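INPUT
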Amino acid sequence: METGLSILIGLFFTVSVYLMLSKELVRMLLGIAILGNAVNLLIFTAGRLTREVPPLIPEELYTPAVQTANPLPQALVLTAIVISFSFLAFLLVLAFRAYQELGTDDANEMRVAEPADEQAPPQGY
Amino acid sequence: MRTIIFRTIAPYLAALMILFSVFVLLRGHNEPGGGFIGGLIAASALAIYGIACGVASVRRAIVFHPMSISAFGLFIAVLAGLPSLLLKQSYMTSQWLSFRFFDVNVDLSTPMLFDIGVYFVVVGSIASIALALEERESD
Amino acid sequence: MAGSSVSVDISQAMAVAPVSAGDWLIVAPSILTLLGGSLCLMTRKNTQAQPKIGLIFMVLLVAANIGLLARVLDKGVITMVMGNWLPPFGIAFTADALGVTLSTIASIVALCAALYGSATIDNTGRRYGFYPFLLLLMTGVSGAFLTADIFNLYVWFEVLLISSYGLLVLGNDRPQLDGSVKYGILNLIGTNLFLIATGLLYGMFGTLNMADLATKVAALENGASGTLATIAALYLLAFAMKAAAFPVNFWLPASYHTPNIAVSAVFAGLLTKVGVYALIRVFVLLLPGSRAYMADLIALVAMATMMSGAMGALAQGEVRRILGYLVIAGIGSMLGGVAVGSTLAISGAIFYAVHSIIVMTALYMAAGVMMLMGGSYRLRELGGLYQASPAFAAVFLVLGFAVSGLPPFSGFWPKVMLVDAALGDGRYWLAGVILLSGFLTTLAIGRIWIFAFWRGGPEGTADGTSTVRISPIGQLGSAALWLPIGILTALVVYFGLQPEWMLQVVSRGASGVVEPLGYVRSVFGGL
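OUTPUT
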């Protein structure tokens, strides 16, 4: 089970790196979205997998009766999902605004902050 | 989208969803539910109402700016950790107040206050994104 | 839990000893800034009240940090676990000399920026949330400095990152959007790498508490095993991205000159240093074996960072962008300290971080005043500022000497320590590059001073016949502009002339991470 998921995570990382190497912002953002999912799966797998035993403690006990799924990675993944979701939403809006204002989504042509024809500094006076 | 059926149903549906979101919020301590999921339900209610009746009427209905609602939630979530200061315990240690109210056992607690805070944070932030996107579409 | 009738011994899982109010100071920085930030956000429309609320909470933040610093220096490392759940299950906040020193300096700088911002941020900027975002940024920064849980560190990173996005796009104009896209995407990838490494670390050790991790890593027989080296490499890349170290530093000069100058000042002071702090925390405290294993690589990165920063500064003609490259050059020096890794080197790196936080913020603030006086950030269009205000020119020169590492200012001592440590470790190249980058920095700063201050007027005018009206600093009036610069410059001079106290503090901080026994004992010992 862990092996299969590891291979899947590897595939996710491959796809996301490929997309992030692109020049277009939209592809980069898609890459980042997949990267976030890859990371979440990785944390989930790193916490070891247990099937069909939710980490619930029966009412009369103080520790689980049988070996259950590890709840901590689930909490971590939940946190990470919320964070990556909000960041992705922000970056999508930002990319859209940048596209409207700069008229391009090609990272090579985004030279407003760092103009290509910047003057050299003065050498002496 | 703005069919007459949808416009007629939407206010009732939104009201029902908000009621349900409060139910989900309050049962969240020991059962599935809680502030986050409740907040998402409430925010989707606002979004549905916005699609049906326009963003302006949603903004009128919730009175405060969504970001202010979010900030209010953050504020009370942080406050929820403070009572344990008086009892010489660590930050965020849960405190319980149990009493009988007309033959019903009522348990009030700081985790619930925290959950209510989370609820408002989620309602506010998701609603502000949703409303902003709906507004852009209707321009 | 309420209603349960069974009594059970909870002392195995929960702290039962009373927590004194003084220990609450550990969480006070995060709580205060969260409360202040949310209050500010609620009253966002009231542009007159915003600076007042912001300043009140910043003053409280500084007071809490100073109280915490005094307590840590008095009692040693202190720990508090959230919700009384014992570590490693509960999330612990631990204040040691390293974290609390940086947190204190950061809060002073943020207070200065809040004051400075009350003069440079207009009402639109206030409505868009300068003060709420600044306070929430400080939540993230303080939390990152004080947490003892590595996943929690990731969360604080994200808190400060999302607030920094808010600050960065405050004015919403074209260069800002351009800079924000690059800043946003690269920093998000950086934090994702951090998360990957943390997930792998959790998979390997089953814990996220730093003290627990430090113990378990040390217990592992071969400190530089394959998986651990991979994790360390991922951390190095992630924090190098955060700190703007050489191969991944391009987002910094692309974005730091775009926002309002008060925002640039905070960013230049704080954000990259949080990355350096995390690097010190993870590599020296958690993974000392991997640090030793990768020391040559880190040294190489440090040298490349210093050189690219210093040479980049020489190639720029715009004051803010020169300063952006100088931030990078400073990061290189701190990385040099991490590469050497002895107590002396880490002390030097921490002292350098303290110095760099103060001096870079002050320099950006000074650049803002130069803009107000001369009407431009470009060296070609500046001139005659010395005539307009000799005092301001002197202050800029002090800051310039400090950032170049010349005595008798605050940059001198950490450089001495770093060079000494590098020579002691036999890394002559590193020592040489530290000195060389200091020299090149002097050239870059000297160029700003000569062109913007010393010569009579902008390019094309003869000396002393400038037709451009220079607003004298007196006319800029507002104490909100010169008071922050004054406070920070005073600190720079004080740490330069009287470094003994700071040297003591940073060497305590450094020995606290090099020899983590006190840290571990604070987390797991009696609470």
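end of record. The CA atoms of residues 22 and 38 of chain B lie 6 Å apart.
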